[in-house]
Amino acid sequence: xxxxxxxxxxxxxxxEKIRAWSPWxxxxxxxxxxxxxxxxxxxxxxxxxxxxxxxxxxxRAQLETLERVTD
Length: 71
What we know:
The chain is built from three helices and no strands.
């Protein structure tokens, strides 16, 4: 998908419109506990790999225990 090709004049005009609109002045962020919890995960990049390793380790230990008990 190609981006828009802005001329310097168009950029200047758009910047003026945005400054006049100033959406950041009305930005309050999340207000509810649910919204705050959801927003707190915005920067999370993943990290499920270590959790899966721990789970595999726990399942292996459980299997070994089960094999010892049933033998």
